[in-house]
Design a protein that fits this description.
- The chain is an alpha+beta fold.
- 53% of the residues lie in helices and 13% in strands.
- It is built from seven helices and four strands, in the order βαααββαααβα.
- Helix 1 packs across helix 3.
- The longest helix has 25 residues.
- It is globular, with a radius of gyration of 16 Å.
- 29% of the residues are buried.
Length: 173
């Protein structure tokens, strides 16, 4: 299929469970491998390949713990982590469950903390604008990712449409 051509059929989207959390984190890592913020924070590609699946466990488990984790049916090619109106913060037990502390040790505290700081700095203006624009409780999209070879083929759009239909999110067509 030529790049940029939408799929002619609807992409089936399902809710993912804990058993697919690591697969979803891997999809996110692949999709964000060349993200400029992450490249700036961690210039070595091999190190990013090792680092990002650990880091995206945060988003997958945020969706599982406080909202929904959606993905393509069959072969997992795209995922979306949604956080519900009640949101929430991870507990120490949650952080242990997602191996957050262990990941920091494996990756190295300096690199881990630097990448998290760069990501937080990049996201802060958008988060602030979001909370000003929508101060009431709402669903929000924490992460949306499609494997690189399937980007531009309608999978991301299908994930957004499914989120909008299932959870009353407006503004998605």
């Amino acid at each position: 299929m030529a790049e940029g051509k939408a799929l002619s059929r609807e992409v089936p989207i399902i809710e993912l469970g804990e058993e697919r959390a690591d697969d979803a984190a891997t999809i996110m890592a692949q999709a964000f491998q060349d993200n400029p913020v992450l490249v700036r924070a961690c210039p070595d590609r091999d190190t990013r390949v090792r680092l990002l699946p650990w880091m995206f466990r945060w988003s997958t488990w945020k969706g599982l713990r406080f909202g929904k984790l959606l993905g393509t049916a069959g072969r997992l090619e795209g995922v979306a982590a949604l956080v519900g109106p009640d949101g929430g913060e991870f507990t120490a037990q949650d952080l242990t469950h997602i191996d957050h502390v262990h990941a920091r040790k494996v990756i190295g505290p300096e690199l881990w903390d630097g990448v998290l700081a760069a990501n937080d700095e990049d996201a802060a203006p958008a988060e602030a604008a979001l909370h000003l624009a929508a101060p009431e409780p709402h669903w929000y999209l924490d992460a949306l990712a499609v494997i690189p070879e399937r980007q531009g083929q309608g999978i991301g759009s299908a994930l957004l449409r499914a989120a909008a239909r299932r959870y009353g999110i407006r503004g998605c067509r």
